[in-house]
Specification:
With about 500 residues, the protein is an alpha/beta fold. It has two domains: about 280 residues, Aldehyde Dehydrogenase, Chain A, domain 1 (3-Layer(aba) Sandwich); about 190 residues, Aldehyde Dehydrogenase, Chain A, domain 2, CATH 3.40.309. It is built from 15 helices and 21 strands. The strands form six sheets. Strands 14-15-16-13-12-18-19 form a seven-stranded mixed β-sheet, with helices on both faces. It has a five-stranded parallel β-sheet with strand order 9-8-7-10-11, with helices on both faces. Strands 5-6-21 form a three-stranded antiparallel β-sheet, with no helix packed on it. Helix 4 crosses helix 5 and helix 10 crosses helix 11. The longest helix is centred in the N-terminal third of the chain and has 22 residues. The radius of gyration is 23 Å and the shape is globular. The relative contact order is 0.13. The structure holds nicotinamide-adenine-dinucleotide (NAD).
Length: about 500
Amino acid sequence: MTSLADWRARAKALQVETGLIIDGKAVPALDGATHPVINPATGATIAEAACGSAADIDRAVAAAKAAWEDGRWRHMYPRERMAVMRRWADLVEAQAEELALLETLSMGKPITDALTIDLPEVVVTIRYFGEAIDKIAGLSTISAHDAVHTISREPLGVVGAISPWNYPLLMAAWKVAPALAAGNCVVLKPSELAPLSSIRPAQLFLEAGGPAGVFNVVNGTGIEAGKALALHNDVAKISFTGSTAVGKQLLVYAGQSNMKRVSLETGGKSPQVFMPDLPDLDRAAEYAVRGIFDNAGQVCNAGSRLLVHAAIRDQFIAAFTRKAQELYNPGDPLDPATTLGPLVSSAQQGKVLGWIESGKAEGAAVALGGGADPSRPDGAYVLPTLFTGVTAQMAIGREEIFGPVAAMLTFSSEEEAIRLANDSIYGLAASVWTSDLATAHRMVKAIEAGVVWVNCFGDGDMTQPFGGFKQSGNTRDKSLESLAGYMQSKSSWISLG
Ligand code: NAD
């Protein structure tokens, strides 16, 4: 295993591509603008990334539109496109360590997580959608004897993908891979906080034989580059992962421009429900802890609301705090043993600390953590925190905190658990812990969420549609359902008369 010293040496020697990728070339922003990418573990600047403006979005969309119109990608034989996607996945896999290092340096994710979760999932995503290319079929329906009716599936055109910083490359891959597999051309606007890992894969797509102009990347701020992409009249669809507030804004931009499709994966406040008959308290506590402290809680489906039956409250708190102390201690994210890194930025740290203060002011009790890590003043660290005595009215029980902060509420009946679980504007994910099959089925049916786990949390694979009910979004990533979202159906009715 690579040691901390090795990773530090590799970080020091790392050559980073910082340009925009437009029409197959790495280029600076038209106005020469750059912005610093900051390592949140140390506050040091890793690189100055090119920062695209609306004019750069214009030229990237123009390149994608030209590639779309001449059909250099969508008219390629399906098996040829599959071969490109396969080679692309292989190249990303071969560079997984460098890409993982970029994630760790840019957003503070522990290197072991980047290597064992993010990058393998990115490769699986590209392979999964690449393999699906020649398995997409249309329909021929039974029609009158003097007509033939077919329904075929066609790509949309230019797709704009806007991604967040918490799993920078993985969230981008969840959009770009199915969009490309469907035959579209893409302009990706990664998060300005962690753009570096999205640039290299676009170059690897070219090395794999992908035509220039098909996959473009324009880093830039949301309010300039993101907005320009979302308002662009030559963009057929925006595929977004990020906050609910920005997701709503994107729907407005679509209405103000060309009524483009807008698919949204947004925020969450996911409940983990622990019934008194749960099969194994230790295992449940471990999942509960991982569900909220993995990636320092910067996970859209983080299980941030712990709904615990009053009969097991004390045992649960004891098991949860023990597991948290055992599994999550802040450390240098370049250290392979670290499981909890800093938050993405000092601004995000400030927001999370603000929520912690609001929880204290509202009268919730701090059972674990409850502030910044005093031993790491240079980094954006927040201690793993558990609030008990939370009520459904408190802000920490309702708002998405996006940090390592769990809010525990208690309930006394299944009905109350369901009411609490559904008392949220969000509906991304949930879990239920019980030994009773009927209870499990009843609760799966009753809980309003895109994914409901039973006796686990966060498990799954690429076949699982991922996305939310209510204000957690309006679409699904992963799975063939996602691929269908990058296509439209065309019906042809052919008269034989
Ligand atoms: P964010 O909404 O601030 O930013 C997301 C992206 O949108 C960034 O690229 C940003 O530059 C861009 N953006 C910001 N303002 C814009 C505007 N006016 N027009 C166009 N683009 C704009 O979100 P974030 O802070 O990067 O990520 C955290 C959020 O993402 C959390 O709310 C989290 O729940 C959510 N998230 C959801 C999922 C999911 O699958 N549901 C997955 C990961 C993260």
